[in-house]
Amino acid sequence: MTIYEVQPEHEEYVVGEEVRLRITLENHGAETVSFPDPGRVTSAHPTYTLTGPGYPDGLTFSQQSLARENRAPDLLQAVRTAPEIRVEPGQKWEGLLPLSGMLRSLMPGEYRLASRLQGTGLDAKSPERSFRLDRLTPISVHLGQGTLPLGSGEGTGAFIHRAGSAGTLYAFRYSERRPDISEMHLRAPIRRMAVTAGAADVGVPWKNSPLFDELLTYIIWREGQSVKAVSDISKTPLSVELPEPLQEVVRPPLKRSSEPAEALAVSAGGTSVYLVRFSQQAEEPAKAAELAWKAALPEKPGLCGAAIAPPEQGSRRHFAFAVQQGEEVRLYHSRYAAQAQPEPFRSVSLGRGRLLPHAPLALAGDREGRAYASVLLVTDEALHRYARVEAAFGSAGEPLGDPKVTDLGRQPARPIAGGLLYACPQGQVTRRDAVLLLEDGQVLRLAAPGEMRPVSVRGIPTRPILLAPGRHATYVLYFDPNDGLYFEPL
User: Fold this and answer.
1) What separation in angstroms does the CA of 214 have from each of 35, 252, 257, 460?
2) What is the pLDDT along the chain (490 residues), one digit of tens a residue?
3) Alpha carbon distances (Å) from 463 to 139, 224, 368
4) Residues 67 and 76 sit within 8 Å (Cβ to Cβ)
5) Which of 417, 419, 424 lies closest to 441, judged by CA?
6) Cα 136 to Cα 154: distance, rounded to the nearest angstrom
7) Helix (H, G, I), strand (E, B) or coil at 117
8) Could you tell me if 424 and 364 are in contact, meaning their C-beta atoms sit under 8 angstroms apart?
9) Nearest to 97 by CA among 192, 189, 21, 168
10) Are 369 and 395 in contact (CB under 8 A)?
């Protein structure tokens, strides 16, 4: 007697996530049973029957049939060479199989799955099991990045998906496979852990070295008064409880190679900023998650941003925030070192205007010690006129002249969100990108001063709008509730 069962790892998934099946077979008979390895592209067994959206009558398939349908000769070659699994009497075998990798994409909804496994002296059926695929509703999303030693774009992203009263943290990687044709590939998101429904401000650290020059990457987020972090090798988050409620965790978090990941957190009253650090490899347990310092703020921040300078500048950190002061906007900037509190804040007026909602501040530091900070301003509400305003600071932290105003022109509809990016692949600003999302759904990019052009591919950008630099192009992150996250070039 044999007991065969195919069970989805989870009862609920989000679109784009890899649905993996846990396969078990227990041999309670007196003879050895053998069968093709279900984890490889083998013969026509086992077969799976999936019933759900798109397959109302059920779809029966095997790995071999899908390999033939997809015309994958490398997979078909594996059919002829895959070994068999042997299970002795009284023994149990377990394996994992990625279902979504076989079917490419599934529509949201309820699914039922059954399977049949045949082999030498074996013909077993698995009881029907069910799982649900949810539409994607990312309540917080972020892209991490570093320098680009080979020139092509790459990075790690994270998002929090909320379904009802629960939240789930996901991570994904992306890479520019074909920079010659501006193609950025996003891998299937990986489930990291459950988070509270109030989890927010997810962030992946920005580095001043290649993002993957270390074994560990981190994800940082906020839950209540706690700032939390998880690394690639951890299933339990590190956490720092702060003494007061928080307005936000500043994004991006920052990291220098071989040093802890760090994040700034602004108090809800806007009077203080905290620096927290996380290191999964800290020699002392107390330093795995610690509060490094607390500093006073001159005003309550509106938009905030952080950046890390190149190693040539000692990896100095920059912190900037913009404040609406009546009809004027003022920008504050400070610097701090790894083990030191911020220098005194210096500020400049960005002129008359209103900060555009859902348009994060952009900040970058270069190899000469300068820092650049940009925001998007509404300069004429009635005429739908907008501008990108940039302030520069010198190697001593001093403001460098008057802010630079780049007119974005008159827009055909009211912008409801925006995005800014300094592309700094090797510690120097090579591109300054600006994007607007209009209330009619159009996404526009800055082509020249006063000229905004529609992007080549329309879609629904994430909020905030996230941009990723590539070798020749910049990419915007879109999401489809029924299909998941994807990149398109500006």
Assistant:
1) 40, 18, 7, 33
2) 889 999 999 999 999 898 889 999 999 988 888 887 776 655 567 889 999 998 999 999 887 776 666 544 444 444 455 578 889 999 999 988 887 666 667 889 999 999 998 877 788 999 999 999 999 988 999 999 999 878 899 999 999 998 877 899 999 999 999 999 999 999 999 999 999 989 999 999 999 999 889 988 999 999 999 999 999 888 899 999 999 999 999 999 999 999 999 999 999 999 999 999 999 877 677 789 999 999 999 999 999 999 999 999 999 999 999 999 999 999 999 999 877 889 999 999 999 999 998 999 999 999 999 999 999 999 998 888 999 999 999 999 999 999 999 999 999 999 999 999 999 887 889 999 999 999 999 999 999 888 899 998 888 999 889 999 999 999 999 999 998 999 999 9
3) 8, 21, 33
4) yes
5) 417
6) 23
7) strand
8) yes
9) 21
10) yes
CA nearest to 12, candidates 111, 98, 132, 117: 132
Residue 132 to residue 15: CA distance in whole angstroms: 10
Question: Would the pTM count as exceeding 0.85?
Answer: yes
Helix H or strand E encompassing 374: strand 371-380
Could you tell me the CA-to-CA distances from 407 to 74, 289, 402, 466 in Å, in that order?
A: 53, 44, 15, 21
Q: Which two tokens stand for residue 267?
A: 């108090």
Rounded to a whole number, what is the distance in angstroms from the first to the last CA of the chain? 60
Is residue 152 classed as helix, strand or coil in its secondary structure? coil
The whole-angstrom separation of Cα 8 and Cα 384 is 51
d(CA 252, CA 250): 6
CA–centroid distance for 242 within its chain: 25
103 alpha-carbon distance from chain centroid: 24
Buried/exposed code over 8-46 (b: 16+ C-beta within 10 A; e: otherwise): beeeebbbbbebbbebebbbeeeeebebbbbebbbbebb
Cβ burial, residue 83 (10 Å; 0-12/13-18/19+): exposed
Considering only CA atoms, which of 301, 289, 201, 189 is closest in space to residue 253? 201
Q: Residue 46 in contact with residue 227, Cβ under 8 Å?
A: no
Where b means 16+ CB within 10 Å and e means fewer, 99-119 reads: bbebbeebebeebebbbbbbb
Residues 6+ apart with CB under 8 A from 350: 322, 328, 329, 330, 331, 375, 377, 389, 391, 403
| Cross-strand partners of 21 | 8, 97
Contact 407, 435 (CB under 8 A): no
Amino acid at the residue 65 = S
Phi, psi of 312 (to 5 degrees): -60, -25
